[in-house]
Amino acid sequence: MANSDKKQDVLRLPAELLYEHELNLLKEEDKKEEKPAGWQLSPKAVFKFIAGGKSGGAEITPKYIGHNRLVEIAIATLLTDRSLLLIGEPGTAKSWLSENLTAAVCGDSAKVIQGTAGTTEEQIRYSWNYAMLIANGPSNEALIKSPIYRAMESGSIARFEEISRCASEVQDALISIMSEKTISIPELGREIPARRGFSIIATANTRDRGVNDMSAALKRRFNIIVLPSPASLETEVSIVSRRVAEISGSYRLKAHLPANDVIEKIVTVFRELRKGVTTDEKQKLKSPSGVISTAEAISLITNSMALAASFGNGSVSDEDLAAGLQGAVVKDEDKDKLVWKEYLENVMKKRGAAWRGLYNSCSEMNR
Fold first, then answer.
1. Is 170 exposed, middle or buried (0-12, 13-18, 19+ CB in 10 A)?
2. Does residue 1 carry a pLDDT above 50?
3. Do the bridges between strand 112-114 and strand 83-88 make them parallel or antiparallel, or are there none, so unpaired?
4. Which residues pair with 58 in a beta bridge?
5. Cα-flanking dihedrals φ and ψ of residue 199, to 5°?
6. Phi, then psi, of 114 in degrees rounded to 5
7. Which of 71, 81, 102, 216 is deepest in the core (most CB within 10 A)?
């Protein structure tokens, strides 16, 4: 089977395959530039891959739309001995930026630890094939390398998603790795030193503060960058439109992309409920208990397209959008249903004919 056919059969491609053509263009353009150890692109080419631009006459699509200076700081951090920590509200593209930075720098974004309450220290350092361990004792063959171990061996980047979801003692297993740049294996009587190019990009959710706060010692070993929510309505609409187009294409949804004004309505609703005030800042609003993020808006519109493709005529209707809005806003049945009803009656209903269809559909769903 051809490589292109294999790609089409995969539900979600890693960034290095999804944007393989763009990376190849940048590599060709970047041949004469000096590259840091372990990097496949120069820092300027990595920035162009993330922020967008032109290469070889072709368009490099922006992967992160926001503050370019933050992207420059993130790239510069990876040139030093400090690791990178991206923090922010849910849906501020922390994981997306982490994946694309890793894909651009070393061409392999798959060395990932997903932080959860069940993550153990062994998943950060190394573990053992216990059948082989019992049969033959500690050996190289019985050793199971963690993503961080493999990144240290190869001089590449490991990703640690949602680090604050892990228990504090598990988080602190990183301290010696980040300080000494080695992993000690006492069972084999040796240490594994990190090759040049090794780094860690971690992400943390500001909504998870207090779940497992990171120790001061661990924070000192990271350069921390706070990713803000999109500053303007236009920026958020652009982000949502671009990602919906990419995701719906990957899922092969047989539905038309919603018009820009439809996406703008959804983003407006999300921004107002998130901030607790209308766009014109004249009316305060109650916010729902759940996360009303950009990522939720992308998911809502993608799901609406799936509804339109499967049970409609291929065009996203107000009924399709209302079903998604109901699920996105009303997470706590008692509290959120009231918040959503007040928003519908006090804000959306008063916005005239352009919003009438969406208002009617949402009101019907919220009964």
1. buried
2. no
3. unpaired
4. 55
5. -160, 170
6. -95, 110
7. 102
Q: Is the pTM of this model over 0.90?
A: no
E strand spans, 242-282: none
- Range from 42-51, 223-232, 238-247, 284-293 that averages highest in pLDDT: 42-51
- Tell me which residue of 304, 267, 213, 255 sits closest to 91, measured CA to CA: 267
Tens digits of residue pLDDT in 91-120 = 889 999 999 999 999 999 999 999 999 999
DSSP-derived pairing of the beta strands 199-205 and 190-193: unpaired
Burial class (CB in 10 A: 0-12, 13-18, 19+), 91: buried
**pLDDT value of residue 367:** 76
User: Tokens 């509200």 label which residue?
Assistant: 89
Q: Are 138 and 188 in contact (CB under 8 A)?
A: yes
Half-sphere exposure of 291 (CA within 13 A, CB side): 16
Q: How confident is the model at residue 289 (pLDDT cuts 50, 70, 90)?
A: confident
Of 238, 259, 248, 234, nearest to 316 by C-alpha is: 259
Question: What single DSSP character describes residue 292?
Answer: -
Is 35 a residue whose pLDDT tops 90? yes
- DSSP state, 163? G
Single out the residue of 223, 318, 220, 229 nearest to residue 273, CA to CA. Answer: 229
Q: What is the pLDDT of residue 299?
A: 93
Backbone angles phi, psi at 104, to 5 degrees: -70, -40
Q: Which tens digits make up the pLDDT trace of 336-345?
A: 999 999 999 9
What is the SS3 assignment for 83? strand
Per-residue pLDDT for 213 more than 90? no
Tallying the residues shown for the chain, one arrives at 367
In whole angstroms, give the CA distance from residue 101 to residue 50.
7
Q: What are phi and psi for residue 190, nearest 5 degrees?
A: -150, 165
144: DSSP letter: E
The residues spanned by each domain of the chain are 3-226, 233-365
